[in-house]
Amino acid sequence: MQLRSPGPTVGIVGGGQLGRMLGEAAAPLGIDLVVSDPTPQAPASPVARDQVVGAFDDEATIRELAERADYLTFEIELTDPAALERVREETGTPVHPDPATLRTIQDKLVQKRRLSEAGVPVPAFRAVDSATELREALDDLGYPAMLKARKGGYDGRGNVPVESPEDVETAFAAIEGPAMVEEFVDFERELAVMACQGDGEVDTFPVTETIHEAEILRQMVSPPRTTETVREHATEVALEVLDVLDGRGVFGIELFETVDGEILLNEIAPRPHNSGHWTIEGCHTSQFEQHLRAVTGRPLGTTARRCPTASANILGDVDDRRSARLRGVENVLGRERAALHWYGKQEVYRLRKMGHVTLPGEDTANSAALLDDVEACVTPLTFD
Question: Are residues 243 and 257 in the same domain?
């Protein structure tokens, strides 16, 4: 393999924070990026060679991107797998992960059925197309349960808890479309594994503990506060998931650790994921570098962790949409080892992910203490 200038170009459908961090990882590899996004001057545009302005699922936009790239990938699931397949056929530009994988993952019911058929452990689930079907399903699964929109949900959107029979009608009306319901998982903690599939090789990053509040990911720490046996089991399940997915790239695999120490699959993202942002400082190869290595067919990098590492999201704390101006960054920049990642979004609103802070620890650092320390970094940050 030779390096040349200009190097290969990767086209990315989506120009948000994931595209931005992919761009930061691409430059040292000699890779150029072109991104597409409906928002002019999207967060990834400062670190990409160019941006095509267009909807995520607009076929003409995807085609223009493919015609300007040697490889095509995506950082958001809202693109159209059929359009990706047609564009791949017409332009000859490889698309990774495979659009068929995206099609499977886009529909949570299809995803769960496919994984269950492959023997991957998943919570009990049912398809429900009406409030009556939901009520019948819950007669079997029991209360409480989680009702999920089959398509389009993320960051807790499209998920509605159903606590009792009195909640059924309201919950189903809130979904507004095809749905599925899952049994309530009595979990000890939530875990995630960033798994990667290259050209004939697979690997996983160290298991991460993820802490959510109101369905929004707030903090991550690796190693997780669980046993080595549970970590090994989580890695095994992640590798089982990879067997079901086609195409090269990094996949965010979200898991439940039950109170009995079992591992159940929650959901999959066919791209780098928030739960793996800590790898930028915490691992020898970040999830973003790894995704680019995989998509372009290069050898995968080592996934070894440098040191115990925690990370916390910077979330919007204002009720009205306004220009994004973050105060208090000196608290992070003045903290030894802390790393600030600002996503460059022009507007902020409540719970919007605006950035994150990562805090690598000493080799003997305690995960619980690291979580406290990284939270102390982000607590003083405010928007005005």
Answer: yes
Alpha carbons 105 and 122: distance in angstroms, whole number: 14
Q: What is the pLDDT of residues 112-121, one digit of tens each?
A: 999 999 999 9
150 part of a folded domain: yes
**Is the peptide bond between 223 and the residue preceding it cis, with omega within 30 degrees of 0?**
yes
Radius of gyration of the chain (CA): 20
Question: Please, which pLDDT band fits residue 384 given cuts at 50, 70 and 90?
Answer: confident
Q: How far apart are CA 53 and CA 45, in angstroms?
A: 10
The structural domain count of the chain equals 3
Instruction: State if pTM tops 0.85.
Output: yes
Give the residue numbers of the binding site for ATP.
108, 148, 182-185, 190, 212, 266-267
Judgement on whether residues 17 and 164 belong to the same structural domain of the protein? no
pLDDT band at 298 (very low <50, low <70, confident <90, very high): very high
- Other CB atoms within a 10 A radius of the CB of residue 344 amount to 18
Domain CATH number, residue 263: 3.30.470.20
pLDDT category at 155 given cuts 50, 70, 90 is: low
Three-class SS state of 356: strand
Q: Which residues contact 257 (CB under 8 A, 6 or more apart)?
A: 187, 188, 189, 190, 191, 226, 230, 234, 263
Domain shared by 161 and 204, yes or no: no
Question: Do residues 300 and 29 make contact, with C-beta atoms less than 8 angstroms apart?
Answer: no
In the block, tokens 């990053």 appear at 205
Last residue of a domain, one of 183, 211, 228: 183
What average pLDDT does range 69-84 have in this prediction? Answer: 97
pLDDT digits (tens, 9 = 90+) for 324-348: 999 999 999 999 999 999 999 999 9
* Shared domain check, 64 and 154: no
CATH number at residue 148: 3.30.1490.20
Task: Indicate the annotated binding residues.
Answer: 108, 148, 182-185, 190, 212, 266-267
